[in-house]
Q: What sequence folds into this?
């Protein structure tokens, strides 16, 4: 099977990216990471990518914190296209996506979110779960559209909230689940077990 070509985008520590790269290296996910990109030049995800000798793209610094300027997002989208990315994986990408990326990768972009969507979209979903006193939360992989954390859900994993949990302990447990869920979804997209919207790979 031809490996699925992935572009990975992140703004932070990159633990999901590292877990994914590890599963690919072990031959458990038929994929190839063709570009690792970040909106922040000093994000740890880029250091991890450098250590793995993967191509990187660091966005130019822009004026806004919550979104990229259209020109900068266009450069990012073009870098992903030039790298030949077939699927864009948002793994802790903290800015709102706009047209340049959404138009280049329609139905070919997924995100991992640390809650059982539609519950707790937005920031610090694990803190929202603690505040809501739910006994179960989890993580979700979903298709990306123009609504933040709002695209069609692909797959979820449940995580218990335990007595005495702090924000840190709950987030750590959710991240363990994320590190399993995201590679599994990519594996099943690559092998066709999960359908793609409008069949963009022509299968
Ligand atoms: C994850 O919890 C993910 O759900 C959220 O951002 C976090 C990224 O973590 N979207 P990491 O950078 O992969 O460690």
A:
């Amino acid at each position: 099977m031809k490996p699925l070509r992935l572009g990975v985008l992140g703004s932070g520590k990159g633990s999901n990216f590292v877990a994914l790269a590890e599963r690919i290296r072990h031959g458990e996910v038929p994929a190839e990471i063709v570009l690792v990109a970040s909106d922040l030049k000093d994000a740890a995800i880029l250091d991890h990518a450098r250590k793995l000798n993967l191509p990187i793209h660091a966005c130019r610094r822009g004026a806004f914190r919550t979104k990229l300027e259209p020109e900068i997002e266009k450069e990012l989208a073009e870098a992903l296209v030039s790298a030949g990315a077939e699927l864009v994986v948002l793994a802790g990408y903290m800015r709102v996506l706009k047209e340049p990326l959404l138009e280049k990768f329609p139905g070919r972009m997924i995100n991992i979110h640390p809650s059982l969507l539609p519950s707790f979209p937005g920031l610090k979903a694990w803190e929202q779960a603690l505040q809501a006193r739910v006994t179960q939360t989890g993580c979700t992989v979903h298709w990306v559209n123009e609504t933040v954390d709002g695209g069609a859900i692909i797959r979820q994993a449940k995580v218990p909230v335990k007595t005495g949990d702090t924000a840190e302990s709950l987030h750590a447990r959710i991240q363990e689940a994320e590190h399993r869920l995201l590679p599994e979804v990519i594996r099943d997209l690559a092998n066709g077990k999960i359908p793609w919207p409008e069949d963009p790979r022509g299968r």
In short: The chain has six helices and seven strands. The pocket of 5-O-phosphono-beta-D-ribofuranosylamine is lined by residues 10, 12-16, 91-92, 112-114, 175, 178 (CB under 6 Å). The first helix runs from residue 15 to 25. The chain has a mean pLDDT of 94.
